[in-house]
């Protein structure tokens, strides 16, 4: 089976028997009991859990910018080859304005890997863009994730689950029993049902999935390092289960080369712009560091900031932990491919990262809409003015971390890439970080001198000073 890497309109034969989950749109409920709409909403939520909660899918009717460079990077990741710099860009601009006509959330039946299929139409209209915004999930289902160990992925045992995740997501067990157990029915992204026996036993006692787990692990070809996502269902003893692969199982087409696919998407985009016809795009969120179909208002807000080397940044909010932020500094603002895509905002910011794990996964470049300025006073520009592209500080950052991974209740990371990107606080030359450190030391010295003078003065009066400014 051939995955849909680009699916040009002229090559519909690429299509595979994938599972169509549901168009991503607002779902309404007409009665109190579970309905088909409720189940569809949960399927949408499970898709997003598998894609990564930081992945934002544009809505039907929303105006978006399409970035051909990002599409090429996805093909590069799928085909495991490098970009062909000899391919002409067919006079396409670095970003193209489209309107979303349809969105389908899909998954491959043999790997459960998720992707989205967009139907776009050129939009030359002027204005502030669509008023459509992302719609939150109507059913806030509880969920947790488990990174599989070697024993979990084995077909000769069971799967050990984190206690806190089970207690908030699974139907309650009578923990007072020595052999507490209950049957569970798990539904995957394709609607298939899998029967598990949930037990709480052992010394010390542990939550486990036993009967039925071996069959599931074998059928899904689970490996150590893969992540299983468990989500509460609508009925008693019903759960949903999704999979995030540690290594993609989808194989690229042997009939098409990466160069042919890149030419195909450029030709189709050019034809769509010229003839005002539909343009089909496949988006694999797990293969991209940054989305290449981005809402109009998100891009315009990001480009209103005058980015420059030395500016401090922080990542966008993490949906799983709103208090978790990562910080960094821009080292340069320059084109990735100035010859073919001049003045492109696609991953134009070179960054240096903070110290954190998984440094080999951290991208050296990010898009302006994946981060936000850390300082309160940020210079903004009218949206009609292009971003000032300073190239005076070429810098090769030392990647030290990748806090992009998400962590479950057992502090297990799933290693997924998402749009919440992390930047560093490392210095550049005579860095601002060093200046901040020097300033802090000067302030501390001044405070210490002030405290000493106060103590001397008070002791001369026979008084004792307690605490001083040490806890300030």
TrEMBL record:
SUPFAM superfamilies assigned: DNA-binding pseudobarrel domain
Primary site of residence: nucleus
Leader peptide range in chain numbering: none
Single GO term (MF): transcription cis-regulatory region binding
Subcellular location: Nucleus
Domain TF-B3 span(s) in chain numbering: 144-247
Top-level taxon in the UniProt lineage: Eukaryota
GO cellular-component term (any): nucleus
InterPro entries, A to Z: ARF_dom, ARF_plant, B3_DNA-bd, DNA-bd_pseudobarrel_sf
Pfam families the UniProt entry points to: ARF_AD, B3
Family: Belongs to the ARF family.
The protein's assembly and partners: Homodimers and heterodimers.
Protein name in the entry: Auxin response factor
Source organism of the structure: Helianthus annuus (Common sunflower)
